[in-house]
Amino acid sequence: MSKTTTERLQDAALARFAVQGFDATTMNEIAADVGIKKPSVYAHFRNKDELFMSLIPLMIESELAHARSVFQGGEAIRAQLLAYFHGIQERFDGSPQVRFWMRILFSPPVHLYEQVMQPMHIFMDDLEDIIRQAVGNSPLALAPLEVETQVIACMAMIESLQSELLFGGARKYRRRLTAIWTVFEAAVAHPD
Q1: Taking 90 as the threshold, does the pLDDT of residue 42 lie above it?
Q2: Does the predicted TM-score (pTM) go above 0.90?
Q3: Are 62 and 79 in contact (CB under 8 A)?
Q4: At what angle do helices 113-136 and 48-70 cross, to 10 degrees?
Q5: CA-CA-CA-CA torsion for 85, 91, 93, 98, nearest 10 degrees?
Q6: Contacts of 93 (CB under 8 A, 6+ apart)
Q7: Diameter of the chain by CA atoms?
Q8: Which residues contact 170 (CB under 8 A, 6 or more apart)?
Q9: Which of 19, 137, 139, 168 is the Cys-Cys partner for 164 at CB 3.0 to 4.6 Å?
């Protein structure tokens, strides 16, 4: 099934925003990427702000679906957590969607800050619930740390890894991942 013009505009905008940022992207560029004239864009979106905001629910849905596919709980919970953490860089490197997502999490357009952050807070709560369910239905539920503490620590690790990748680069991200995973494993280990 071919994509609608609206979907093609969203894809083009997302790719541009991921690389150039919101302010540097023009509606002319987005229209050209889709192969239409700029006035035709306005039949689908009133302005660049509306086009940008239309991407937020799509990204939230995609990111939550990814989290649900990774976090299944059970005996493999450690591997699932580590896969999610490693996936931060792998997905960032391979997907304009994920690059866009991480950039807006840390630096949304200033004039859209409140509009962006409201659904982001809901997203973070939903992600936390997914992790809570997976950890609660795994051997980690019996670890010395309470499930809630582990979940909050995982959320902090995710945010820390995303920030380090975005602002420090891949080498620093890998260094941080190694350190935080070592600390997490020690914290949830059963005493002998």
Answers
A1: yes
A2: yes
A3: no
A4: 10
A5: -110
A6: 170
A7: 69
A8: 89, 93
A9: 168
Look over the chain and give the mean of its residue pLDDT values, rounded to a whole number.
95
For the stretch 9-31, pLDDT in tens is: 999 999 999 989 999 999 999 99
Tokens linked to 41: 């864009």
Residue found by looking up tokens 């995303």 in the block: 162
In one letter, which amino acid is 39?
A: P
Q: Among residues 149, 135, 19, 147, which one has the least CA distance to residue 84?
A: 135
In sequence order, what are the residues at sequence separation of 6 or more whose Cβ sits closer than 8 angstroms to the Cβ of residue 160? 176, 180
Other Cβ atoms within 10 Å of 22 Cβ, number: 20
What is the pLDDT, as a whole number, of residue 191? 61
- pLDDT per residue as tens digits for the range 94-125: 998 899 989 888 889 999 999 999 999 999 99
